């Protein structure tokens, strides 16, 4: 896009016509992950200063959407899927299958470029972790988390998420 090298990197810096032209010139891919899995990963990476997962979740809920970290903010607030027409949405847990498809669509040899991905092991591990972490939360925290991530759960197919109930 003609203004790509001007130093502007945020879409909000461009007017609507420029944004539309710029976005039309790219293949847009959005990678999504179950919001509860994102919370677990953030907690395990040590971004939460609290010793328990329940305390960490309370910190997330207390910070709200506007003051929270991008690591746990709802994806809908970060990626604007209602405003940007993404060409592909790739769901964590199906990376090998979906990335292979994307590479083939781009005319690249999918098999030789993909890293070794063990989606089934990752899914099993996160299922087990989710059960353990979810059991630490109070009924009120579970309800508040489901409400906090309601738009992500509505926009993306996370039917097996603990927060979908």
UniProtKB/TrEMBL annotation:
Keywords: Carbohydrate metabolism, Glycoprotein, Golgi apparatus, Membrane, Signal-anchor, Transferase, Transmembrane, Transmembrane helix. The keyword Transmembrane helix applies. One of its GO terms (molecular function) is sulfotransferase activity. InterPro entries: Carb_sulfotrans_8-10, Sulfotransferase. It is found in: Golgi apparatus membrane. Its main location: Golgi. The keyword Transferase applies. One of its GO terms (biological process) is carbohydrate biosynthetic process. GO terms for cellular component: Golgi membrane. Pfam families: Sulfotransfer_2. Signal peptide: none annotated. It is a single-pass type II membrane protein. It comes from the Eukaryota. It is an enzyme of class 2 (transferase). Its EC number is 2.8.2.-. Belongs to the sulfotransferase 2 family. This is Carbohydrate sulfotransferase. It comes from Illadopsis cleaveri (blackcap illadopsis).
């Amino acid at each position: 896009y003609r203004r790509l090298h001007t130093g502007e990197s945020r879409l909000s810096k461009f007017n609507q016509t420029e944004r539309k032209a710029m976005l039309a010139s790219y293949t847009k891919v959005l990678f999504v992950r179950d919001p509860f899995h994102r919370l677990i990963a953030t907690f395990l990476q040590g971004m939460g200063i609290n010793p328990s997962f329940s305390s960490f979740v309370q910190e997330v809920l207390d910070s709200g959407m506007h003051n929270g970290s991008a690591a746990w903010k709802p994806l809908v607030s970060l990626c604007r899927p209602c405003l940007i027409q993404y060409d592909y949405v790739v769901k964590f847990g199906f990376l090998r299958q979906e990335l292979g498809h994307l590479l083939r669509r781009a005319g690249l040899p999918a098999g030789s470029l993909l890293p070794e991905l063990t989606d089934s092991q990752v899914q099993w591990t996160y299922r087990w972790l989710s059960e353990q972490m979810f059991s630490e939360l109070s009924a009120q925290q579970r309800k508040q988390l489901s409400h906090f991530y309601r738009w992500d759960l509505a926009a993306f197919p996370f039917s097996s998420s603990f927060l979908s109930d």
